[in-house]
Amino acid sequence: MISHGPTQTPSHADVAKLTPQAAVAHAQEIARPAEVKNLYSSRTWVAPEAIPQLKKAAELPGMVYVAAMPDLHPGTGSPGGAAFVSRGLIHPKLIGGDIGCGMHLCATTIDPRTSVKRLGDRLSSIDGVWHGDLSAVMRKHGLQETGYEAALGTIGGGNHFAEVQVVHSIVDKRIAADLGLMNSKALLLIHSGSRGFGQEILNRYNAESRGVPLDPNSTEGLRYLAGHDQAMRYARANREIIARRIMDRLGATATPLIDLSHNHLEKKTTVHGDTWIHRKGAAPSDQGLVVIPGSRSSFTYLVRPIGNGEVNAHSLAHGAGRKVSRSQCEDKFGRLSPEDLRRPKDKRVGIDNLVICENRDLLRQEHGKAYKDIDQVIEDLAHFGLIEVVAVLKPILTYKTRAECEDGDG
């Protein structure tokens, strides 16, 4: 299903603020409508509020096309589960504040037959300050002082998590073996980002540029991109430390397999020339295997991207996508017992997970049924010729928080 968005109609005030080079790029783009490519089937539920957000993004100056994934959902300012391709201009507000948020998959030395209760008992809080060798990690990732060093190694709130998983099934044995995926060892999947640092980069952009698009070669554009790249490095370092902290608690070791951001800007030469891909909850499909988690009561899929990347903006879904808003979760799931919330199960497929989350509101908001059906998301991606499934993983222990966390989704 591919539809076309309306002709771009930015305000005269916005155009007047552009640099001459960016204004030329904008003038070249407004003569053609931006496409909105809907890469989901009629069987996939999409919140109506996400559609006008997509159309609004398609009307932004310099926009070439927008790719909407099956996990599409409304977001703050722009929808999640989408990639936005522009030429000549960049739009920081499309990325949002959790710059660099992504998935980190590790192979571990944990025996999947280990008692989940024993693992949960050993996994004490990792919400506080990490007392490891922070200087060494910062040097490794090329990080400068940010003022947010105390948050490195913490997961955050919203839909962020760390999850011990086991192999449910392997579809492509060769690729799984090359990656080091084994039935005999559990895995660790981490979803976290740049914490408050990325939001500071966005706030600085809003204060300096008042939300208008930027010429990436201008002083303002270069300043934003430098902050963006720093936040990307921060987020990778954050996930690395989280993995180390969890393994230390569980008396195990981890080997990184995949680390991919799904909230970022990427400069890429495509059939449309030199473009900028803005990913908001969209995993890159041009950097190897991709891990796409569902909810804490459903599967995670390891997939191999296929196709030339042009129809989907070199991007894939980053998860299941939210179906029930956080404000509605109290009404829908408020009567469930703590046991039901902390031990999500699906007997049909053998899922019996233990969730560590001491924030009761967050526990309800992250109920499995608050998210779309991950199986349908994967089916849609396969239907559009974007992926092949390599392996299916299932959760056995999910860590959210042992305290109150306030930062949002990413």
Strand content: 25-35%
* Rg from alpha-carbon coordinates: 21 Å
CATH topology: tRNA-splicing ligase RtcB
Give a short account of the largest sheet.
Answer: 8 strands, mixed
Mean pLDDT: 91
**How does CATH name the architecture?**
Alpha-Beta Complex
Structural class: alpha+beta
Q: Which regions are unreliable across 5 or more consecutive residues at pLDDT < 50?
A: 1-13
Q: Given this structure, which CATH class is correct?
A: Alpha Beta
Fraction of residues in H or I helices: 25-40%
Number of strands: 18
Structure write-up:
- There is one protein chain.
- The protein is an alpha+beta fold.
- The chain has a single domain (2-401), classed as tRNA-splicing ligase RtcB.
- It is 30% helix and 27% strand.
- Strands 5, 6, 7, 8, 12, 13, 17 and 18 form an 8-stranded mixed sheet that branches.
- The longest helix has 32 residues, at 219-250.
- 50% of the residues are buried.
Which structural traits does this protein have?
alpha+beta; eight-stranded mixed beta sheet; 13 helices; disordered N terminus
Q: What secondary-structure arrangement, pairings included, does this model have?
A:
Layout: E1 2-4, H1 12-16, H2 20-29, E2 35-38, H3 50-58, E3 63-73, E4 80-86, H4 92-95, E5 102-108, H5 116-122, H6 134-140, E6 161-170, H7 173-179, E7 187-192, H8 195-209, H9 219-250, E8 254-261, E9 263-270, E10 273-280, E11 282-284, E12 290-293, E13 300-305, E14 315-317, H10 329-333, H11 338-342, E15 345-346, E16 351-352, E17 354-357, H12 360-365, H13 374-383, E18 387-401
Parallel strand pairs: 2-3, 17-18
Antiparallel strand pairs: 1-2, 3-4, 4-10, 5-7, 5-8, 6-7, 6-18, 9-10, 11-14, 12-13, 13-18, 15-16
Helix pairs in contact: 8-9
